[in-house]
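Predict the 3D structure for this chain.
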Amino acid sequence: MIVFQRRKLGTVYTKSPAQNLSKFMADNMSKVVFSIFMCIAWLAVLYVLVGVVNFVGGQVGDAWERDLPTANIYNHPYCFPIKVIGIICVIFYVFRDKRIKR
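Done. Predicted structure below.
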């Protein structure tokens, strides 16, 4: 007499498509929120660096006028590509980071 045995392939419990979608949305939503905070932090760090460059160039090096506001340099069109490239790098870093998926 032949006895058939049931074989198990993989785990017994499988997730439903709704659970998979929920996990996917939670992972990506946390990455979006984290990337927004990191972009704000990048812009703050860039403002501080522009302030340091303004101080060194105006007070120490006499490269330009002494009372030039930092906001004028920060909002200058030459600073815009640095902002955009930094934001793209931050977003790329956050979405490529494997530690968030735990």
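Helices lie at 17-60, 70-74, 80-96.
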